[in-house]
Amino acid sequence: MSILQAIILGIVQGLTEFIPISSTAHLIFVSRALGLYGGAEQTARAELTTATIAVIQLGTLLAVLIYFARDIWNISYAFVRDHLALVRGQKSEAAMEMTMIGKRQSRLSQEAWLGWLVIIGSIPIGTIGLLLKKMIEGPLTKNLWLIATMMIVVAIGLGIAELVGKRKREMEELGILDALAVGGAQVLSLMPGASRSGSTIMGGLFAGETRETAARFSFLLSIPAIAASGLLELKEAYTKLPSDSYVSLAVATIVSGLVGYASIWFLLRFLRTHSTGIFIGYRIVVGFTVLALLFAGVINATDAGAQPGQTGEPKQEQTLPTAIAPTPNTNQSTNNRRQNSVNSSRPSSRRARSWNENK
Q: pTM of the entire structure?
């Protein structure tokens, strides 16, 4: 992977990770257009692409951690503080304030309760992701039929959520049902084309959250998922990816972090006054365009850049067996010479007749 390819991948990852248009789908589109790992066999190429995407996602993870640093600190501090107080048989001051105003989660403060919601919402994708790890890394999840279909399906779901969602509930009103709805929807992001932010915002809207609340909770919920997948693949990427690609990977990760930070800032402000309609329309156009190109045979559903049996290693020429020269028929050549003929010891019939006449 060249530096230019790394910069392009980083920009695409940063732009599409948090905007609900599917980062994985666009990274697969771009990686195929750039001919990334073009010398590898299809399955190996799919695994290399998956590892690259997961590592680059660490840049966008860093963007989330920096953007929500204050929220993350408050949640972590309150989570530890409130549970230590519960162990001592007490309540924190913040928890008592919640009791006084009549909130459900009176044993915990709002920040500590939000920490539990992030944990609960992360269980579905963590469980399913580990169970389907091999399939996710394989060529099936790079198939353009699947990607285009999921682009359209989630767009339709997001559109329905916009129509039927009440969009009234704020962050302080979130409960277990929100964690289950958003966390369950996040499982869809395991399929390329679904979009992590698109599926989780859809789940939040169905649960009655405001657009900004759904997006903010979606970003907080993405932290464990992106961290787990990125760190898990980082170990395997060290052994799978070529050693000369480490610098390019670092460049792509940094670029994705910078662009991702700007994307978070943009989306949260955009959703305060706008719907997700523009993203829904974009997803539908891209999805049907890809399907049309597939039906027309203009593009292949799977990456046909490598022939079966090839690997990422340099191709070695096969040594063909040397043609064997025809072996002369020794019996035939011998029989054609009179002195070696098996009949040479016997007189010919003409010599026999001449001997009888002279006798």
A: 0.77
